Amino acid sequence: MQRRSLLLVLAASPAKAQAPLTVFAAASLADGMRALAPLWQARGNPPFRVSLAASSALARQVEQGAPADILASADEEWMDWLAARSLIAPATRRSALGNALVLVGGTAPVSLGPGLDWGALLGPGGRLAVADPAHVPAGRYAQAALTALGAWPTLAPRLARAENVRAALLLVERGEVRFGIVYRTDVAAAPSLRIAATFPPESHRPITYPFALTSRGAANPQAASLLAFLTGPEAMPVWQGLGFTTPAP
């Protein structure tokens, strides 16, 4: 299946002669980007565009020459992948945000542990929604967490694999599956859902979001200003208000 990104044009003013900056951002960053756009423009800056998709899809688009100025990934590995290909400006890279992995769905809390009956939890023939572990950071974290809990062999054949974490959330929201594994911050986008459990931090690698200028963006001073804004002190309260954390140094 071809992966497609969602393009958000975060603009509140007429188009200007200069092409707007383009930010490639992991799907889980959508709400923060929307909230920060008007603050950026209130400074007198031109609007920027955001292309949202799984970090894997965005990284490959950058490799193929897509006109991104900034990349905000949901894990370090895909940023490493681009760095190895000299497609980002390494000195601009910063891991600005953190997150937690949660089980979403159901009507009651779930106790994650070796005694959990996943078959009863999901129901006969039921599946567990996750971003595709073969490509997407949220899915990789989910696979690691389920492996640490000893549940991966049981659940691997019962996954409803989605193209990104927001698509996994939507499967739960639509009632197509009972439960899904997403980031804690994603649940705010689905008020009808609840967090059933939070996976132990030690069950997976720390969830961090590296931001960096691409090779294209490194030549644009305004791109550097936008990166500093998105990861700086003015933006942090917005990210934290959405549930993101600041990773430990």
> Approximately what portion of the residues adopt beta-strand conformation?
15-25%
How confident is the prediction overall: mean pLDDT? 91
Distance between the termini: 38 Å
Number of E-type strands: 11
* Apparent shape: elongated
Describe this structure as you would to a colleague.
The chain has helices at residues 30-42, 55-63, 76-84, 118-122, 137-148, 152-155, 165-173, 221-230, 236-241, and strands spanning 6-10, 21-26, 48-53, 70-72, 94-99, 101-105, 128-131, 159-162, 179-183, 195-198, 207-213. It has 249 residues and is an alpha/beta fold. The protein has a 6-stranded mixed sheet. Strands 8-7-9-6-10 form a 5-stranded mixed sheet, sandwiched between helices. The radius of gyration is 18 Å and the shape is elongated. The relative contact order is 0.21.
